[in-house]
């Protein structure tokens, strides 16, 4: 690929983005991708790469970030053992009434798009129905009846084809299957109760059923550059992939995994490479990132969904935040639910970048 040649100095001297106006060519090999990713470690080269990725985002998706929100811990995680980096699992699912109340609180903020996320219950092998199929269908129906929002579902590899079909019939906008890390040994070590094959299988089921897919990549767990690039390359086979979120590894106190905090740099470079591979994909920030990561994310071609609100249900101490004041708004909804509105601060950050977030979902 001639486009990949040229020293960083030459690229910088030309003051031009790399010539990828339409993204990377289909025939771009994994080896060429790896070369591109490795060279982007040099900030001079990354400057040109980010400029290309940002222009491609602008052309493909526009420049209007749009709000979504998440309700997590809606289902218990039944993995045994649990993932060794996880401290956010819940062994108790949320009551349907609390999820509905949380969705109502988010809707009151004007947000029209919502993720329902929870832990994993692996269906029995070859089961026609199992895992959280029935539970998620009933939960989505309950939220639908109460609130007019677009809904996505993320309960790990807990759905069979029946569940995917049922959720599609209910108009669910996308199902998440997060592969996290495309290194089978590292996956098995970090997620000994989980199944990479089951997560891939769920993506395949969604692909076969015409269900839009959201996926996630955990950066900094211990994977190599080659693993990261192989992961992106692997995702190319899914025509239904609509959204990819990148998590930035953080060793949470109390988690067995240990390790070190992932720096923002590999995440930004992967965002740019992903943009060139998938021009129309929504590329978001996931766990381990915060509002301070928004500027680099945007520069690297990320966009356009931003999370404007989250919900806490399992920890009543969160209610104390309800009076935090300033830009932190925590709104108590009923007895057990607190909606955390992050929009004032994120809006300010985005405005300082000349960006105006909207409430309109993309789908
Ligand atoms: S699947 Fe793993 S990361 Fe997700 S909630 Fe369960 S233990 Fe945590």
Question: What is the secondary structure topology, with strand pairs?
Answer:
Blueprint: H1 8-14, H2 30-39, H3 43-61, E1 66-71, H4 96-108, E2 113-117, H5 133-146, E3 150-154, H6 161-169, E4 174-176, H7 184-190, H8 196-209, E5 213-219, H9 225-235, E6 241-248, H10 264-277, E7 282-285, H11 294-299, E8 305-312, E9 329-333, E10 337-341, H12 343-352
Parallel strand pairs: 1-2, 1-8, 2-3, 3-4, 4-5, 5-6, 6-7
Antiparallel strand pairs: 8-10, 9-10
Helix pairs in contact: 1-3, 2-9, 3-10, 4-5, 5-6, 6-8
Please provide a written account of the structure:
The protein is built from 12 helices and 10 strands. It has helices at about 10-15, 30-40, 45-60, 95-110, 135-145, 160-170, 185-190, 195-210, 225-235, 265-275, 295-300, 345-350; strands spanning about 65-70, 115, 150-155, 175, 215-220, 240-250, 280-285, 305-310, 330-335, 335-340. Strand 9 and strand 10 (about 335-340) form a beta hairpin. The protein is about 35% helix and about 15% strand. Helix 1 packs across helix 3 (about 45-60) and helix 6 packs across helix 8 (about 195-210). The protein has a 10-stranded mixed sheet. The protein is globular, with a radius of gyration of 20 Å. The mean pLDDT is about 90. The chain has one domain (about 30-35, about 65-350): Aldolase class I (TIM Barrel), CATH 3.20.20.70. The structure holds iron/sulfur cluster.
């Amino acid at each position: 690929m001639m486009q990949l040649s040229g020293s960083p100095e030459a690229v910088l001297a030309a003051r031009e983005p790399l010539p990828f106006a339409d993204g990377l060519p289909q025939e771009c090999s994994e080896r060429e991708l790896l070369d591109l990713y490795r060279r982007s470690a040099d900030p001079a080269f990354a400057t040109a790469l980010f400029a290309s990725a940002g222009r491609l985002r602008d052309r493909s998706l526009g420049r209007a970030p749009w709000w979504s929100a998440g309700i997590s811990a809606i289902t218990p995680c039944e993995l045994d053992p649990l993932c060794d980096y996880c401290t956010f699992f819940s062994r108790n699912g949320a009551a349907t009434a609390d999820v509905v109340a949380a969705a109502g609180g988010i809707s009151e903020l004007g947000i029209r798009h919502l993720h329902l996320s929870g832990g994993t219950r692996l269906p029995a092998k070859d089961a026609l129905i199992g895992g959280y199929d029935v539970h998620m269908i009933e939960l989505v129906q309950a939220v639908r009846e109460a609130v007019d929002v677009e809904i996505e579902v993320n309960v790990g590899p807990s759905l069979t084809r029946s569940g995917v079909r049922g959720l599609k019939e209910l108009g669910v906008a996308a199902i998440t299957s997060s592969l996290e890390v495309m290194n089978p040994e590292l996956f098995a070590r970090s997620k000994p109760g989980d199944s990479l094959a089951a997560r891939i299988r769920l993506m395949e089921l969604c692909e076969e059923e015409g269900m839009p897919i959201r996926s996630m990549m955990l950066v900094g767990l211990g994977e190599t550059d080659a693993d990261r690039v192989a992961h992106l390359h692997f995702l190319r086979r899914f025509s239904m992939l609509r959204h990819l979120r990148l998590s930035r590894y953080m060793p949470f106190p109390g988690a067995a995994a240990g390790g070190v905090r992932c720096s923002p740099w590999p995440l930004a470079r992967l965002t740019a490479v992903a943009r060139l591979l998938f021009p129309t994909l929504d590329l978001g920030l996931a766990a381990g990132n915060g509002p301070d990561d928004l500027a680099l994310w945007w520069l690297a071609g990320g966009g356009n969904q931003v999370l404007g609100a989250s919900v806490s249900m399992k920890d009543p101490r969160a209610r104390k935040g309800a009076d935090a004041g300033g830009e932190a708004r925590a709104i108590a909804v009923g007895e057990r639910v607190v909606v955390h509105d992050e929009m004032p601060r994120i809006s300010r950050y985005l405005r300082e970048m000349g960006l105006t977030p909207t409430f309109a979902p993309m789908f």
